[in-house]
């Protein structure tokens, strides 16, 4: 192996929330890594599992409560319909940029070589079966197994 020069060789992304903005951030980062020739893996844990749950991945929302980037008071963000409005606006803006929907993006990630892992503990906690997940996941693993996949120089872990 050649001498390590400090370049990023692998991105290990942990996705713990399936809000639209978190899912797309993780997917864009993983896709960008692959476009630069960098290995990428995503570990879906806790509520991030909804991004790979066949019944939920098409119904993700934009968080309006507790999201300072929304620039609206928390009280307004919690009003009925605000989350739906924000989600609709976000989807329209993404369509203008020709962004794929979640399922299509998962297919793109898989085709580009991104490894997709579901968290065993979170699946047990939420009583999720592997059959409920996107067909292209690489497997269901523990956090320790995920960490072991992230060894080596040039590996970066990112929590989204």
Describe this structure in words.
With 160 residues, the protein is an alpha/beta fold. It has 2 domains: 10-58 and 101-159, DsrEFH-like (Hypothetical Protein Ychn, Chain: A), CATH 3.40.1260.10; 64-99, no CATH class. The chain contains 6 helices and 5 strands. The chain has helices at residues 20-35, 74-77, 82-96, 102-112, 120-125, 143-149; strands at 10-15, 39-44, 115-119, 139-141, 155-159. Helix 5 (120-125) links the parallel strand 3 (115-119) and strand 4. The longest helix is centred in the first third of the chain and has 16 residues, at 20-35. The model has no long low-confidence stretch (mean pLDDT 90).
Quick structural summary:
With 160 residues, the protein is an alpha/beta fold. The protein has helices spanning 20-35, 74-77, 82-96, 102-112, 120-125, 143-149, and strands spanning 10-15, 39-44, 115-119, 139-141, 155-159.
- How many whole angstroms does the radius of gyration measure? 17 Å
CATH class category of the largest domain: Alpha Beta
Low-confidence stretches: none
Q: How would you describe the shape?
A: globular
CATH topology descriptor of the largest domain = Hypothetical Protein Ychn, Chain: A
**Nearest-integer average pLDDT:** 90
- CATH level-two architecture of the largest domain: 3-Layer(aba) Sandwich
Helical/strand content category:
alpha/beta
- Strand arrangement, major sheet: 4-3-2-1-5
Please, how many domains? 2
The beta-strand count equals 5
The helical percent reads 25-40%
Helix and strand sequence: EHEHHHEHEHE
Oligomer: single chain
State the distance separating the first and last CA atoms: 31 Å
The proportion of residues in beta strands is: 15-25%
- Main sheet characteristics: 5 strands, parallel
Number of helices: 6
């Amino acid at each position: 192996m050649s001498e390590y020069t400090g370049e990023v060789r692998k991105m290990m992304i942990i996705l713990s929330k399936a809000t639209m903005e978190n899912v797309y951030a993780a997917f864009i980062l993983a896709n960008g890594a692959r476009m630069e020739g960098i290995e990428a893996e995503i570990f879906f844990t806790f509520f991030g599992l909804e991004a790979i749950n066949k019944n939920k991945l098409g119904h993700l929302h934009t968080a309006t409560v507790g999201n300072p980037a929304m620039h609206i008071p928390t009280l307004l963000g919690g009003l009925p319909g605000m989350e739906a409005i924000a989600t609709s606006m976000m989807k329209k803006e993404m369509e203008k940029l020709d962004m794929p929907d979640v399922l299509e993006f998962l297919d793109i990630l898989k085709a580009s070589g991104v490894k997709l892992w579901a968290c065993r503990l979170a699946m047990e906690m939420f009583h999720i079966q592997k059959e409920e997940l996107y067909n292209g996941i690489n497997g269901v693993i523990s956090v320790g197994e995920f960490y072991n996949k992230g060894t080596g120089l040039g590996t970066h872990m990112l929590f989204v």
